Amino acid sequence: VTNSRCVHVFLVRNRVEKSLVSFGEGAKSTLLESSYPHLVQLYSRLRDLGRQALVVVSEDIVSRPRVMLARICQHAGLAMDPQQLSWEPGPKEYDGVWAKHWYRNVWASSGFEASVGSHKKAMSIPDDQKALLEEVIPFLSFMKRRAVRAASLAGESSGPKGSVKGGTHEFHQDPRNARVLIGIRDGVSGDFSLVPRSCASVSVLDSGFLLGDGAWEGIRLHNGRLLFFREHVDRLYQAMKALDISMDVSKEEVREMVEATTTANGMVGGVHIRLIVSRGLKLTPYQSPAATVGWPTIVVIPEHKAASPEVKEKGIKLITSAFRRARPDTQDPAINCLSKNTCISACIHAVNSGYHECLMLDPQGFVATCNSTNFIMVKGGVVLSPTTDYQLHGITRQNMLDLAREAGYEVR
């Protein structure tokens, strides 16, 4: 580790369960035998020493050998040789004692593209290997988050873009957001934890993920204050009551979770907070609330995010959407529910048509709202706004109308 002449390359496998199964051919299946704890320990040790290590994923090497081998050679200070992409089939004198167990597929192949490795095969995973997999995954996830992936090296999109241009959704990703801590309240254990964004998650059996069963609020942090927090949390609890989701925490406890998250991140202003509550964990992917175990899942996502001045200066282009706001007996628009399919469809309509935002109509064909923002207009010195019959009872909307009245405008 301390030898400066050494370079370090860590090879991990995405489908790690397949390599764990092979332990049955000789070695005992244990967490230590998997070596993943040692990989994390060694990687961390190198980092502490200021040594740069490269992490690669074996499936990337198989699918993109030229790109990945070039990167490995670059890390090692070697020239890439095309001869590295192929080999003569059969055993080699330098293969080592484990070759007959590990290299059978390599011996049968002559190159990466022609590989017939186990990465292409489906296989049954024994119960004891599933238990081991549960222990290995946290260590594997740590290494994979630090891996150089083939798609990024090839210039392909491997995740969300760093910004969105134009319109009400315009933003530029603040690099500080990569390191923010996310607040997560587990509804089963009752634990509230602060988790790095890169590894923050909820269960795939969470009601919010499975069914969009829950609600959310968007709150601004400005000059150390949560703007209109009482109004936002009141509306959130009204939504919980309408959705028949029992909250086991008080409004003050929710505030404490939000403040704990922003304080831990050293946030004072210019911050948007997404406060999300789902019904909680499901025992099985059913709609019935009876299939829910524990209390609601609560997530606090804070981001450094400022409004774009360009949008204020240039304005936005609207198009009337073919998708209409629903009646309260279909999907109550007064609930800021997690299921936003209609609004997302309207958003897609706008973008695909070359516009920024959609003007959405109510079932009778009157203007209701936009797909993600309030709609207010001024005509003849009179401030006009649609009724709240088919839109969220917007807190920002109401503040704008109150300010207009205070400024002497007639508001309808």
TrEMBL record:
<dbReference type="InterPro" id="IPR036038">
    <property type="entry name" value="Aminotransferase-like"/>
</dbReference>
<dbReference type="GO" id="GO:0003824">
    <property type="term" value="F:catalytic activity"/>
</dbReference>
<dbReference type="InterPro" id="IPR043131">
    <property type="entry name" value="BCAT-like_N"/>
</dbReference>
<comment type="similarity">
    <text>Belongs to the class-IV pyridoxal-phosphate-dependent aminotransferase family.</text>
</comment>
<dbReference type="GO" id="GO:0046394">
    <property type="term" value="P:carboxylic acid biosynthetic process"/>
</dbReference>
<dbReference type="InterPro" id="IPR001544">
    <property type="entry name" value="Aminotrans_IV"/>
</dbReference>
<dbReference type="Pfam" id="PF19798">
    <property type="entry name" value="Sulfotransfer_5"/>
</dbReference>
<protein>
    <submittedName>
        <fullName>Uncharacterized protein</fullName>
    </submittedName>
</protein>
<dbReference type="InterPro" id="IPR027417">
    <property type="entry name" value="P-loop_NTPase"/>
</dbReference>
<dbReference type="Pfam" id="PF01063">
    <property type="entry name" value="Aminotran_4"/>
</dbReference>
<dbReference type="InterPro" id="IPR050571">
    <property type="entry name" value="Class-IV_PLP-Dep_Aminotrnsfr"/>
</dbReference>
<dbReference type="InterPro" id="IPR043132">
    <property type="entry name" value="BCAT-like_C"/>
</dbReference>
